[in-house]
Amino acid sequence: MENSLSVRNLRVSYYGIQALDDISFSTESGKLIGIIGPNGAGKSTLMKAILGLISKDAGEVSFNDMTLKQIRKNIAYVPQRAVIDWDFPITVLDTVLLGTYPSLGFFHRPKKSDKELAYNCLEKVGMQEFSKRQIGELSGGQQQRIFLARALAQKADLFFLDEPFVGIDVSSEEVIIRILKELRDDGKTVFVVHHDLSKVTDYFDDLILMNKELIKFGPVKQVLQPELMKKAYNAQFSLLDSMGVII
């Protein structure tokens, strides 16, 4: 199935401490998938391990029965804003243009068509008027839109976004989730590390609920069950229940 992902018996540890323990699941294409769990559950670690950004102790990851190396150009990754150097002297347009580089090959510079694509992606996220700004001059929500535009310029089939809604304005969040749903509707597969449980029903098709191990993977309503949420969030469960986020 196109744009699918299979994770089998994935284990990751840091300095002998288990971060991910024997995680296995398989996804279908054309899905918007949220990765949820308490702080320290390993959500970002899972995403980085899938993408080969950190080493794993054991396990296999495949994309449409292909390896990461074979399909890497078809994968777009938007990291957490906190790990990005916002003082780097690069403009908004040039940042988005970086998304075209995986398809250019070595020693090739972006063509006029690549620059037009980058500008179109800026228009899609509503940031075309900021094209000549330095990325550090933007607000958090604007910065997140720029990096989504960069991912769009890559013309990928699988998208991985790590906490894209943290510290951004409501307008930017609405723009981003609208675009992610459009990608899903176009047959792309989108993974999002997410923390706001009050919005998961509106945002996602499927959920990966985890706390170092996989608690449950499946449609949102099957995952948002009290016994599963209690297992994942432990002492935080009563607070979540009082917030009305448990179905």
Structure write-up:
The chain has a single domain (5-242), classed as 3-Layer(aba) Sandwich (Rossmann fold). The protein has ten helices and nine strands. The chain has helices at 43-50, 68-71, 92-97, 112-124, 140-153, 170-185, 200-203, 220-223, 226-233, 237-242, and strands at 5-14, 17-27, 32-36, 58-63, 75-78, 158-162, 189-193, 206-211, 213-219. The chain has a six-stranded mixed β-sheet, with helices on both faces. The protein has a three-stranded antiparallel β-sheet with strand order 2-1-4, covered by helices on one side. β6, α6 and β7 form a beta-alpha-beta unit. α4 crosses α5 (140-153) and α5 runs parallel beside α6 (170-185). The chain is globular. Residues 5-237 form the ABC transporter domain. InterPro entries: AAA+_ATPase, ABC_transporter-like_ATP-bd, ABC_transporter-like_CS, Metal_Ion_Import_ABC, P-loop_NTPase. Its EC number is 3.6.3.-.
Q: Can you tag this structure with a few keywords?
A:
247 residues; alpha/beta; 24% strand; globular; EC 3.6.3.-; ATP-binding; ABC_transporter-like_CS; nucleotide-binding; ATP binding
Q: Helical amount among residues, as a percent range?
A: 25-40%
DSSP summary: helix tally:
10
- By DSSP, the count of extended strands is 9
Low-confidence stretches: none
The span between the termini is 31 Å
Briefly, what is this?
With 247 residues, the protein is an alpha/beta fold. It has helices at residues 43-50, 68-71, 92-97, 112-124, 140-153, 170-185, 200-203, 220-223, 226-233, 237-242, and strands at residues 5-14, 17-27, 32-36, 58-63, 75-78, 158-162, 189-193, 206-211, 213-219. It has 10 helices and 9 strands.
